[in-house]
Amino acid sequence: MLLKEIKDIRSIIKDWKKDGLTIGYVPTMGCLHEGHKSLIEKAVSENDKVVVSVFVNPTQFGPNEDYDSYPKNIDEDLEICKKSGASIVFNPDKEEMYFNNKSTTVSVSELTNVLCGAKRPGHFDGVCLVLSKFFNIITPDKAYFGEKDFQQIAVVKRMVRDLNINIEILSCPIVREKDGLAKSSRNVYLSKEERKAALVLNRSLSLAKEELKHGERNSKIIKDIIVNELNKEPLAKIDYVEIVDSESLNDLEIVNTTALIPIAVYIGKTRLIDNFIFNI
Ligand code: PAF
């Protein structure tokens, strides 16, 4: 069922709660792919009812980012949600979500000034604002996020902890194309040549993973391996390559604890992210 108004979804959720049903929630910006599908299917397997929101959130885009061109495909999204077993697709308009005199911000002060937070000022404030709103509207028991945006999960978990929001935050592994490219709604921007070039993200991370498996623990050496591989691809421009503690997101000089190895790379004009977690 497709719903566009907050009052309508609230009324259905009230009935579900009266019947004692559990609610899973998958927040998305639409243009759904296998990664989203895996989140919806997990939510369906763990809850009585599942809500998927499809909303391209203006407050999480910077002035020179791709808000206006962000891909949209609501008909296909509805089909994927239906096939995956979602109960409701909530697709509000911008006006339904944001008042023209919105004056509240939601800002997590730790974990947000590194990685994508450092490169995209205000991004996580926008994510936290819209998710606070969706969490208040949908009041789910569990919410599901993809590990490709690992920092987002860390920030959302912190927000939920700090604000005592009674929702369990769960994550699903990155889903990849057969050739290794991490699934992303932004992959549709890539030309044929860029699509091929984009494989360098996973390739560079795989080289780093091998080196770590063989016992290398010096972050600089690992980072250099990634950077060198990325620099071999003429269409790639590095935004960041980091090795951080997977919980605090602080830099690790030596990989002596569970590490997150995240990268952000422009392929042409398209900014792609990828990562892996290394458990020692
Ligand atoms: O990961 C995304 O697609 C977005 O950041 C989210 C969580 C739907 C909030 O707009």
Brief digest:
This protein has 280 residues and is an alpha/beta fold.
Molecular structure report:
It contains 10 helices and 10 strands. It has 280 residues and is an alpha/beta fold. It folds into 2 domains: 2-172, HUPs (Rossmann fold); 185-278, Pantoate-beta-alanine ligase, C-terminal domain (Pantoate--beta-alanine Ligase, Chain: A,domain 2, 2-Layer Sandwich). The relative contact order is 0.13.
- CATH level 4 superfamily of the largest domain: HUPs
Structural class: alpha/beta
Bound molecules: pantoate
* Largest beta-sheet characterization: 6 strands, parallel
- Please report the total strand number as a whole number: 10
Here the CATH topology of the largest domain equals Rossmann fold
Task: Bin the strand percentage.
Answer: 15-25%
Broad CATH class of the largest domain: Alpha Beta
Q: Mean of residue pLDDT?
A: 98
In spatial order, strands of the major sheet run: 1-4-3-2-5-6
Kindly give the count of domains. 2
Low-confidence stretches: none
The topology string of helices and strands comes to: EHEHEHEHHHEHEHHHEEEE
Helix run count: 10
In CATH, the architecture of the largest domain is 3-Layer(aba) Sandwich
Helix content: 25-40%
Please compute the radius of gyration using only Cα atoms. Answer: 19 Å
General form: globular
In whole angstroms, the N-to-C terminal distance is: 45 Å
How do the strands and helices of this protein lay out in sequence?
Elements: E1 2-3, H1 6-18, E2 23-28, H2 34-46, E3 49-54, H3 74-84, E4 88-90, H4 94-97, H5 115-119, H6 123-138, E5 142-146, H7 150-162, E6 168-172, H8 192-197, H9 199-213, H10 219-231, E7 236-241, E8 244-245, E9 259-267, E10 270-278
Parallel strand pairs: 1-4, 2-3, 2-5, 3-4, 5-6
Antiparallel strand pairs: 7-9, 8-9, 9-10
Helix pairs in contact: 6-7, 9-10
Bound molecules: pantoate.
